[in-house]
C-alpha cells in the first residue's frame, strides 16, 4: 500500500515537473504571443467558449438529474432500461456527427453548438445519477420507510445525499468533456477557442494552436478543481469517507 | 396491546405468506417470532407498521386497527430496527439517532437531551460520538445506535427484525444482555424476529413459532420447551430442549420446591455458587467436574448443597 502511494506521488511530481517545463519552454518560445497581442480577441473567444459550456452543462444537469430521479422511482422502474438504452445509443454517436446533425436542423452558429454539447453531456450525468441512486442499499430505504419518512423525505434526506458522490462525479466528467468538445463548435460556426485551435491546425501555426489549446486545457483543469471544492461542501463527510474507504 | 386477528397475507394472488394468524401481545412483553426462513415471521412483523399491506384480518395496536391509521404517523410511533442496522451514512450519529424526533419537529434542546440520555443507556459517550459517522463505528456500536434510534421518540411499541443477526456470537450475547437490562427500565412492547431458538428463549417473554405462514405454537419459552404442541416444534427447538429449559430456571426455583441436603463440610470437591445462578450453568459446573457438589449461597447464608441428582429430580418433576 505504501509503495503504491509512493509511486503515485512520484508519478504526480514527475508529471507536474514536465508540465511546468512545457509551460516555460512554450512561453519562452513565444507561443502565447497571440494572447498578449490580441487580448480583446482572446477574451471574446474565451467568453464564447465559457458561455457554451455553462449553458449546455446547466441545461444537461437540469434535465439529467430530474430524469435520473424519475426513472429510479418504483413506478417508472420499468421504463428505466428504455431511457438508459436511448441515452447509451446517443453516446455512441460521435460528437462531430451530433454537431453535424444539429447543424442540418438548426443552421450554423451558437445555438446548434450549445444543443450538441447539451446532448453530449446528458448521458454521463444521467448514468451516474441512476447508478448512484440504485446503489443505495435497500435496507436504508426500508429503515427510512419503517421510521415514517415520507417519499419526498426519503428522496431528499436519504437518496440524494447518499447518491451525491456519484452524481457529482457524473457532472464533473460531463463538464470537463464538454470544455474539450466545445472546441469543435468552431466547425459549425459556434465560435470559442476552437477558432484559434483550428486556425493553428490549418496554418500549421503553433502560436495559434497553443494560444487556443492551452487555455482550454487550463479551463478544464480549473473546472475540475472548482467542482471538487464544491463537492467538499455539498457532499456529507460520512458519504465521501465511506466511498473512499471501499 | 397488540392484537392479531385472523391475519392473512397473500402475495401475487396465490402465495399465502401468512395464513389466518391470531394472537395477543400483552403490554411490556417481548414476543419473539421464530421459524425457518420463509415462514412468514418477517411478513407478519412488517404488517404491523404497514410496510406490507394486510390481505385479510386486522392488526390493532392499543385497540386501534393499524389499517385505519395514517401509515406515516403509525410508523413514527413504532420503533423499527433491522438486521443491518440501516444507519444513514450521510448523517452523523446524532442526526441518525434523532431522525424520528426530527421528523416530529422536536426542538434542539429536547433532541440534545434525549440523545445524551439514550447514548448513556447503551454505554456510549454522547460527546465522543455525536459528530461521527456510521462507518467510523464498529458493528456492535452501529447496532446499539440502530436500537436507540428506534427508541428515540419513545414509542410504546418496537419492531425488531433479526436485530442481532449480523453480529458475532460474543458481541451478540453481550448486546442481548444489555438490551434486556434496558427493557427492564423502558418496558416497551416488542415484536422480535429471530431464527435462533437460543435467542428466542433468552429474549422472549413469549415465543411464536411459525411454519409456512401458520402459527404453530404461541407460549412462554419454558412452556414451548416442556410441551411442544407438535413434531415440528419439537424438532425445531431441538433434542436438547431439556437442557435449554434449565437455563430458564434458577437455583432459587429449585430451592422453593425441594429441600437441599446440608453441605458436607469434609468434602473438598465443592464450590460456592449464588442462589440466582441458573440451573444450566450449575449443571455445567458439576459436569465439568469442577466440583462434586455446589454450596448454594444466599446473601451470607449457606442454604445447602446441590448435586446433579437434585437437578435431575427437579427437571423431571417440575419442568418436563
TrEMBL record, chain A:
<dbReference type="InterPro" id="IPR035906">
    <property type="entry name" value="MetI-like_sf"/>
</dbReference>
<feature type="transmembrane region" description="Helical">
    <location>
        <begin position="207"/>
        <end position="227"/>
    </location>
</feature>
<keyword id="KW-1133">Transmembrane helix</keyword>
<feature type="domain" description="ABC transmembrane type-1">
    <location>
        <begin position="46"/>
        <end position="227"/>
    </location>
</feature>
<feature type="transmembrane region" description="Helical">
    <location>
        <begin position="50"/>
        <end position="70"/>
    </location>
</feature>
<dbReference type="InterPro" id="IPR051204">
    <property type="entry name" value="ABC_transp_perm/SBD"/>
</dbReference>
<protein>
    <submittedName>
        <fullName>ABC transporter permease</fullName>
    </submittedName>
</protein>
<keyword id="KW-0812">Transmembrane</keyword>
<keyword id="KW-0472">Membrane</keyword>
<dbReference type="Pfam" id="PF00528">
    <property type="entry name" value="BPD_transp_1"/>
</dbReference>
<keyword id="KW-0813">Transport</keyword>
<dbReference type="InterPro" id="IPR000515">
    <property type="entry name" value="MetI-like"/>
</dbReference>
<comment type="similarity">
    <text>Belongs to the binding-protein-dependent transport system permease family.</text>
</comment>
UniProtKB/TrEMBL annotation, chain B:
<keyword id="KW-0813">Transport</keyword>
<dbReference type="InterPro" id="IPR003593">
    <property type="entry name" value="AAA+_ATPase"/>
</dbReference>
<dbReference type="InterPro" id="IPR003439">
    <property type="entry name" value="ABC_transporter-like_ATP-bd"/>
</dbReference>
<dbReference type="GO" id="GO:0005524">
    <property type="term" value="F:ATP binding"/>
</dbReference>
<dbReference type="Pfam" id="PF00005">
    <property type="entry name" value="ABC_tran"/>
</dbReference>
<dbReference type="InterPro" id="IPR017871">
    <property type="entry name" value="ABC_transporter-like_CS"/>
</dbReference>
<dbReference type="InterPro" id="IPR027417">
    <property type="entry name" value="P-loop_NTPase"/>
</dbReference>
<keyword id="KW-0547">Nucleotide-binding</keyword>
<keyword id="KW-0067">ATP-binding</keyword>
<feature type="domain" description="ABC transporter">
    <location>
        <begin position="2"/>
        <end position="237"/>
    </location>
</feature>
<protein>
    <submittedName>
        <fullName>ABC transporter ATP-binding protein</fullName>
    </submittedName>
</protein>
<dbReference type="InterPro" id="IPR046342">
    <property type="entry name" value="CBS_dom_sf"/>
</dbReference>
<comment type="similarity">
    <text>Belongs to the ABC transporter superfamily.</text>
</comment>
Amino acid at each position: 500500500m505504501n509503495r503504491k502511494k509512493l509511486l503515485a506521488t512520484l508519478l504526480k511530481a514527475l508529471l507536474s515537473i514536465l508540465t511546468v517545463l512545457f509551460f516555460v519552454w512554450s512561453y519562452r518560445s513565444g507561443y502565447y504571443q497571440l494572447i498578449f497581442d490580441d487580448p480583446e480577441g482572446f477574451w471574446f473567444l474565451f467568453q464564447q467558449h465559457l458561455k457554451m459550456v455553462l449553458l449546455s452543462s446547466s441545461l444537461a444537469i437540469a434535465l439529467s438529474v430530474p430524469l435520473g430521479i424519475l426513472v429510479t422511482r418504483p413506478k417508472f422502474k420499468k421504463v428505466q432500461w428504455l431511457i438508459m438504452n436511448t441515452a447509451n445509443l446517443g453516446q455512441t454517436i460521435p460528437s462531430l456527427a451530433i454537431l453535424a446533425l444539429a447543424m442540418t436542423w438548426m443552421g450554423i452558429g451558437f445555438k446548434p453548438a450549445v444543443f450538441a454539447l447539451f446532448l453530449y453531456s446528458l448521458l454521463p450525468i444521467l448514468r451516474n445519477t441512476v447508478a448512484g441512486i440504485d446503489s443505495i442499499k435497500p435496507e436504508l430505504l426500508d429503515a427510512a420507510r419503517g421510521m415514517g419518512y415520507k417519499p419526498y423525505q426519503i428522496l431528499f434526506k436519504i437518496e440524494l445525499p447518499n447518491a451525491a458522490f456519484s452524481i457529482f462525479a457524473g457532472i464533473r466528467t460531463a463538464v470537463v468533456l464538454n470544455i474539450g468538445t466545445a472546441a469543435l463548435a468552431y466547425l459549425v460556426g459556434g465560435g470559442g477557442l476552437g477558432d484559434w485551435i483550428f486556425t493553428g491546425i490549418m496554418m500549421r501555426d503553433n502560436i495559434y494552436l497553443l494560444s487556443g489549446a492551452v487555455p482550454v486545457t487550463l479551463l478544464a483543469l480549473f473546472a475540475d478543481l472548482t467542482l471538487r471544492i464544491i463537492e467538499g461542501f455539498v457532499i456529507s463527510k460520512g458519504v465521501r469517507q465511506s466511498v473512499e474507504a471501499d | 396491546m397488540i392484537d392479531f386477528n385472523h391475519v392473512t397475507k397473500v402475495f401475487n394472488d396465490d402465495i399465502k405468506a401468512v395464513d389466518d394468524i391470531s394472537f395477543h401481545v400483552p403490554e411490556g412483553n417481548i414476543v419473539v417470532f421464530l421459524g425457518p426462513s420463509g415462514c412468514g415471521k418477517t411478513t407478519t412483523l412488517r404488517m404491523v407498521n404497514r410496510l406490507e399491506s394486510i390481505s385479510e384480518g386486522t392488526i390493532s395496536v392499543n385497540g386501534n386497527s393499524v389499517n385505519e391509521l395514517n401509515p406515516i404517523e403509525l410508523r413514527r410511533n413504532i420503533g423499527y430496527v433491522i438486521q443491518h442496522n440501516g444507519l444513514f451514512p450521510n448523517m452523523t450519529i446524532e442526526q441518525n439517532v434523532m431522525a424520528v424526533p426530527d421528523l416530529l419537529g422536536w426542538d434542539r434542546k429536547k433532541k440534545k437531551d434525549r440523545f445524551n440520555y439514550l447514548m448513556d443507556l447503551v454505554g456510549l459517550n454522547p460527546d465522543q460520538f455525536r459528530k461521527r459517522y456510521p462507518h467510523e463505528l464498529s458493528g456492535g456500536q452501529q447496532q446499539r445506535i440502530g436500537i436507540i434510534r428506534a427508541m428515540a421518540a419513545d414509542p410504546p411499541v418496537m419492531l425488531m427484525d433479526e436485530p442481532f443477526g449480523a453480529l458475532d456470537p460474543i458481541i451478540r450475547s453481550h448486546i442481548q444482555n444489555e438490551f434486556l437490562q434496558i427493557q427492564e427500565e423502558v418496558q416497551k412492547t416488542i415484536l422480535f424476529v429471530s431464527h435462533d431458538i437460543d435467542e428466542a428463549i433468552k429474549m422472549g417473554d413469549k415465543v411464536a413459532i411459525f411454519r409456512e405462514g401458520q402459527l404453530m405454537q404461541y407460549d412462554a419459552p419454558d412452556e414451548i420447551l416442556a410441551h411442544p404442541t407438535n413434531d415440528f416444534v419439537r424438532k425445531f427447538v431441538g433434542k436438547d430442549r431439556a437442557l435449554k429449559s434449565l437455563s430458564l430456571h434458577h437455583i432459587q426455583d429449585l430451592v422453593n420446591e425441594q429441600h437441599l441436603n446440608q453441605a458436607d463440610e469434609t468434602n473438598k470437591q465443592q464450590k460456592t455458587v449464588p442462589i440466582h445462578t441458573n440451573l444450566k450453568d450449575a449443571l455445567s459446573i458439576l459436569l465439568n467436574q469442577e466440583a462434586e457438589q455446589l454450596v448454594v449461597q444466599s446473601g451470607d447464608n449457606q442454604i445447602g448443597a446441590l448435586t446433579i441428582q437434585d437437578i435431575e429430580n427437579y427437571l423431571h418433576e417440575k419442568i418436563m
